[in-house]
Design brief:
The complex is a heterodimer of chains A (about 90) and B (about 750). Chain A is built from three helices and four strands. With about 90 residues, chain A is of the alpha+beta class. In chain A, about 35% of the residues are buried. Chain B is an alpha/beta fold and about 750 residues long. The chains are: A alpha+beta (about 90), B alpha/beta (about 750). Chains A and B meet through loops of A and strand 3 and helix 9 of B.
Chain lengths: ~90, ~750
């Protein structure tokens, strides 16, 4: 299981600050952070602690099995962020 | 005291815990309450929920029930509590000392001394020597807005300046010519359109300007999801452009593109002549106006192939509904007014004005356009400026003229200036010259929450409240909302320290020079009788007697300030923008859009003769860009908004980078005809169109905001000029985009050092 960042995200990165395993990207010192309008959780490293869900100011983070139906595809979008090649456009 | 009867707001602002408004909006000290408010950072004006305990702001979150923004807010607004609570914030009036340092003084001392010095200046040079300057933040500050225009009117001074003349003055000119009011501007009906053409705007990052489309990015995404198209025209593959079809364009090429699109539409018989006949007067001029335009010349100036322009014109004209929207990128070049004219004409000539999915008028809950039109506060070219002979725009003079108005002797020479919520020492063109001229003033006053590069030049710095601490309604963006709504809120939290509302400060200064900051007939006489109408009183009268008002009880379902303030949240007025309202809304002759103007013909001639070739000495074209976590000059002091390795970066295409020996991350030197700066890093990226480079403005701070100073960078406006002939001549708007520059890497110098 993992947590998933969904559409309301505004890349405020309150979640990055509380994540104990640094699985939310891009981090402020990574490329892409300046431009990204959403952050992503790496399902391979997420330990399911739920700290990010509480910290999110826009209620954009959900446990994968509790994703609202209309944002169900964000589980895939989060995972794909970590398999995309650099420079490839983000999902639309 | 009779003087306080109508000016009730002032008492409340000074003592927010005791006023009548406070009692309905402020909980007891230990009670935690949630209040629905709106954000005052940018033109998104997003609905927010503030959680407050006593005087403490616990959190800001998006308001899911806000009719327009529906649960959206961005990192800037959510972090704004940190501006209110910033340790670097100025909390007491300050007076500059002989040695240049600042000392804390009482409000009474500051205001009395300012009054005394202003009276002496007025005695010697007249009221017309007093200047006023408003920054962008005044757009969320109705009290300051009213008092500013009121002071200028009462003083009969031409020295009223607005940051709008480094941003959007062309809009104000064209809306006055076409629709009869500077502030009556149609917005794109993105929610219903089949085709959106977006020129020089980046709503995914800016969240919209002159178009308060809630959830702007999502609303644009929905266009393509329902089978429509969104085409983004920008020299940079911006965050918005990367989501849709992107057409790269040379900086300042937009006016050429728009003229060419129209020429194709008229030449190929694609214009909606019925709409033109029905809605406009003077449309016969258009084919004549466009006749001398050569498509290949336009193509070269825009950097877009002729065939692509032709196809875009056909697609736009044949879409069931379409809207062309353009903002900052096409508002700060040498033909900003003409470009805005063509933008509106493109919408009108394709039958999209005042139609679903087209170019529509909003539904403000306070009809400020009509109020200002009746009071003759709006207009164009009713007088000219003293030194540069610029036509006035909505009663203002352009910022480019300030140094010359300070330095040119004669009647009306500016001797004092009151700067409200603005940082022209960073944001104005040829900023160095402006700073030098400022230091020659007899009196400079800055109302600012920070010791900025502007306020450090002032004789007095007066600390204002921030939007969380004062009464407000979205005075500016209410006219542009995609989902029309009404909201009026009291102060969310009390002011910190001795901060006071800008409107109160301006009224107190006005009292000390014997004026009422109001420009309606009889205001000064009433003032002599001890009656001063407060901005909130005036706006409430405007609301209650207007189209959405309760007509003082005659229409109980209507709105009033009291009713809105008692409600915790915004009131939705309609699901979308109205259509079929043109004749009701515009102020021009016969209810028709006026298209034939000598000024436009003159500008077309000027454009056709304009040299668009690239110089060998300065081969690159510099544009500014908006960053996700920044807003003009003033959010660099918030740790959360400058996190990571945020530094000022010059974006440059790999081809140009290779040509000028620049590698990603290199410090670079940028040189224009007017100045030279160095910036900490280059970002080599193919998001730029070759030949153009982009740099965010508003960096390179000095003063007392320590983090903002520490993040470094350089002022964009060391590279720009304030020459009168460099501007968009009809509006005097500064040309700060498309600056010819050359660049070189400073890496070897760094290594040597």
């Amino acid at each position: 299981m993992t947590y998933v960042v969904t559409a309301p995200c505004v890349a405020d990165y309150s979640c990055v600050e509380v994540c104990p395993v640094d699985c939310i990207h891009p981090m402020p010192d990574e490329s892409g952070f300046d431009n990204t309008t959403q952050l992503y959780i790496d399902p391979a490293t997420c330990t399911d602690c739920g700290a990010c869900e509480d910290a999110c100011p826009v209620s954009a983070i959900f446990a994968a099995d509790k994703l609202p139906k209309h944002w169900a595809h964000y589980a895939r979008i989060n995972a794909e962020h970590f398999t995309r090649r650099d420079g490839e456009p983000e999902h639309v | 005291m009779s003087t306080q009867v109508l000016y009730e707001t002032q008492g409340e602002v000074a003592h927010p815990q005791s006023g009548p408004m406070a009692s309905s909006n402020t909980g007891s000290a230990d009670e935690t309450v949630t209040r629905k408010i709106f954000c005052g950072v940018c033109e998104g004006s997003c609905g927010l929920e503030a959680t407050v305990r006593g005087s403490e702001l616990l959190s800001l979150r998006p308001d899911p029930d806000h009719p327009n923004t529906r649960g959206f807010a961005c990192s800037k607004g959510l972090a704004f509590g940190a501006v209110r609570d910033d340790p670097d914030r100025l909390l007491h009036p300050l007076k500059r000392q002989a040695d240049g340092s600042f000392a804390r003084v009482s409000w009474d001392q500051a205001l009395d001394e300012i009054g005394e010095r202003l009276r002496a200046i007025i005695a010697q040079h007249g009221t017309e020597s007093i200047g006023l300057y408003q920054g962008n933040s005044v757009a969320w500050n109705f009290g300051a807005f009213l008092n500013l225009f009121g002071m200028a009117g009462a003083l009969k001074t031409k020295h009223l300046y607005s940051a709008a003349s480094i941003d959007i003055n062309g809009y104000w000119v064209i809306s006055e010519l076409l629709y009869g009011s500077n502030f009556l501007n149609p917005i794109p009906d993105v929610a219903r359109t089949d085709f959106m053409l977006c020129i020089g705007a980046n709503p995914a990052v800016s969240h919209g300007s002159m178009a308060n489309i809630g959830r702007f990015r999502d609303t644009m995404m929905a266009v393509t999801q329902r089978g429509g198209r969104v085409v983004v025209v920008d020299p940079r593959r911006s965050e918005t452009a990367s989501l849709f079809e992107h057409v790269p364009i040379r900086p300042n090429g937009d006016v050429w593109l728009l003229a060419a699109l129209l020429k194709v539409i008229f030449d190929e018989g694609l214009a909606d002549l019925e709409a033109l006949r029905e809605q406009t007067a003077g449309h016969e001029i258009l084919p004549q106006l466009l006749a001398p335009l050569d498509l290949s010349a336009a193509s070269a100036a825009a950097g877009i192939p002729v065939e692509q322009i032709q196809q875009l014109a056909r697609d736009f004209a044949s879409a069931p509904s379409a809207c062309a929207y353009g903002r900052c990128g096409m508002s700060i070049g040498p033909f900003a007014s003409l470009g805005k004219y063509f933008l509106d004409v493109l919408n009108i000539a394709t039958g999209n004005l005042d139609r679903p999915g087209g170019w529509c008028f909003g539904r403000p809950f306070i009809d400020l356009e009509t109020m200002m039109h009746r009071m003759k506060s709006t207009g164009y070219d009713r007088w000219r400026t003293r030194v540069d002979d610029f036509p006035e725009v909505a009663g203002t003079s352009p910022v480019v003229s300030i140094p010359r108005e300070i330095r040119t002797p004669g009647k009306g020479q500016m001797r004092a200036m009151l700067v409200i919520g603005a940082n022209p020492a960073s944001s104005s063109p040829a900023a160095g010259e402006l700073c030098a001229a400022f230091s020659e003033l007899d009196l400079l006053i800055s109302q600012d929450v920070y010791m900025t590069e502007t306020s450090r030049l002032a004789h007095y710095i007066l600390p204002p409240t921030v939007w969380l601490e004062r009464e407000g309604f979205p005075i500016f963006t209410q006219s542009h909302a995609g989902v029309p709504h009404a909201q009026w809120v009291g102060p969310t939290v009390p002011p910190r320290g001795e901060a006071r509302d800008d409107a109160w400060i301006m009224d107190e200064i006005s009292r000390r020079i014997g004026i009422v900051p109001a420009d309606f007939p009889g205001a000064q006489l009433l003032g002599k009788l001890g009656l001063r109408a407060s901005p909130s009183f005036l706006m409430d009268v405007g609301l209650r007697t207007g189209p959405e008002g309760d007509w003082f009880g005659l229409r109980p379902s209507g709105l009033s300030r009291k009713k809105l303030m008692e409600r915790n949240g915004a009131v939705k007025l309609a699901d979308g923008v109205p259509v079929g309202v043109l004749k009701k809304r515009i102020f021009t002759k016969g209810g028709k859009v006026q298209l034939d103007h000598a000024l436009i013909r003159k500008e077309m001639t000027r454009m056709l003769a304009f040299d668009t070739t690239v110089s060998d000495e300065y081969p690159l074209s510099l544009i500014s860009l908006r960053e996700l976590r920044s807003q003009n000059t003033w959010l660099h002091n918030i740790p959360k908004l400058i996190a990571g390795d945020r530094v000022q970066r010059l974006r440059i295409h790999p081809i140009d980078a290779a040509r000028y020996g620049i590698e990603d991350g290199d410090p670079v030197e940028i040189t224009s005809r007017d100045g030279q700066i160095s910036v900490p890093a280059a970002r080599v990226t193919d998001e730029m169109m070759p030949g153009s480079v982009a740099l965010p403005h508003g960096w390179g701070h000095t003063g007392g905001w320590q983090r903002a100073v520490a993040v470094g960078g350089s002022g964009y406006n060391a590279l720009t000029t304030n020459r009168a002939d460099s501007t968009d001549l009809p509006s005097g708007n500064a040309t700060v985009n498309g600056i010819a520059v050359r660049v070189r890497s400073l890496k070897s110098f760094e290594a040597a050092a």
